[in-house]
Amino acid sequence: MKYHTRIERLEQLSEQERTRIKEVTETFPFRSNDYYLSLINWDDPDDPIRKIIIPNLHELEKWGRLDPSDEESYTIIPGLEHKYHSTALLVISNVCEGICRYCFRKRVFIDTQRTYLHDPAAAMQYITEHKEITNVLLSGGDPFALETSKLENIIRQLREIEHVQIIRIGTKMPAFNPHRIIKNTALLEMISKYSTEQKKIYIMTHFDHPRELTDVAVKSVNLLHKAGALLANQTPLIRGVNSNPLILAELLGKLSFIGAVPYYIFQCRPAIGNKSYTVPIEKGYEIIEQAKSMVSGLAKRARYTMSHTSGKIEILGKTKKFVYFKYLRAADDQDSGRFLVFKSNPNAYWFDDYDEVVRDYPINLPYRAYGPE
C-alpha cells in the first residue's frame, strides 16, 4: 500500500491546488493511501470522501481549540485518561492510516510526546489499582495502525487484570485500509484469542459516508465478526459529508445491515480548523431525526451526543423555543442522568454556546453502575 504525506506530490490535484493547500499542511498534517484516495471522484470538487481527507483552506479559519474537550485535564500520565468512573482511555498510537480533516485530536499529530502512551507498565499499574475500571478504550491515532505484536501486548496485559471486562478499540481502519485487516491473519487470530465468551472485544468502527462501505470494507467487518469481536459504529456529523438526511439514512441503514450497528452520531468537536466541517446543534438534530425517520430498528439506535468537558451529553430534542439535553455520562458522577432545558440558539455549535437555562433537573443516583457503595 502506497502512502501519501506530501500534498505537493498528489498527482490528482492541479499544481495550483497543491500550492494553495500546502499552506494548510504546514499547520495540520496530511496523510492518506492509494486505496482511500481511489474512492474520490476527482471531477467533483464537493466529493464527500475528498472533504474527509484532502486539506482545505477553510481549516486556517481562526476557530476552536486544540483540546476542545479538555482531555488533558483528565490525563493521569501521557496517554492515559480517566474521566468516567468505570472507564479508562488509552491513547496508544499517534498514527492513522489517514488523517481526517475534522479530527478533534489534532494534538496527537502535533505534540506526540505529551499525548500518547509511552509507559504501558505505568498505565497497567494504574488500571490494576483502580478496580472501578471495568472498561478500557484503546484509541489514538488508530490502534490498528500499530504492529499486531504491540497491540497484542497491550490487550494481553489488560486481559490479565480481572476487573477489566470490556476492551474497546476505536478504529477507522475498515474504512481507510480494509486490506490491513483482510490480509493480517495475526490480527484476526489475536482478536479471536482475547474476545472471549465472558469478556468481549468491541470494535468501534468509524464509517462516515456510504461510499466508504466498499466490498472490501464490508469483508473486513465480516472477518472481525468471525474473529469474535462485536462491532458498533461512531461517526461525527460533518457538513458536506453526511449532513444530508438521505445520505445519513443510507449510512445508518447499511451499517445496520452489515452488523456495525450505529452507536453514536457525534457533534463535531470545536477543534481548531473545524469550523467549515461543523453543523449547528439544532440543525444537526433536525438532520438526524429526518434520517432516522427513513430507517428502522437497529439503524435508529444511534444517539446524537457531544463529548463535552463535563461529560457525554445527548441532544434529546428541540421545539421552536427550547432544546433538551441529558448527561449520558458525567465526569462528576452526580451529574449522570442530569436533564437540562435551554432556550433555543440556532447558532450554537457546542454546549457552551447555550447560556439561558430554563430547567435543570439533577439526578441523585444512590448506586453506581457496578453496584452499591
Description:
It is a single chain. The chain is of the alpha/beta class. It folds into 2 domains: 3-60, no CATH class; 71-301, Aldolase class I (TIM Barrel). The protein contains 13 helices and 15 strands. It has helices at 15-25, 34-37, 48-53, 107-110, 112-115, 120-129, 148-159, 173-176, 179-182, 185-194, 215-226, 245-258, 281-292; strands spanning 3-4, 32-33, 75-77, 80-84, 87-91, 135-139, 166-170, 201-205, 230-237, 261-267, 303-308, 311-318, 322-330, 339-343, 357-361. Strands 3-4-5-6-7-8-9-10-11-12-13-14-15 form a 13-stranded mixed beta sheet. Strands 1-2 form a two-stranded antiparallel sheet. Helix 7 links the parallel strand 6 and strand 7 (166-170). Helix 7 runs parallel beside helix 10 and helix 12 (245-258) crosses helix 13. The radius of gyration is 20 Å and the shape is globular. Residues 366-373 have low confidence and may be disordered.
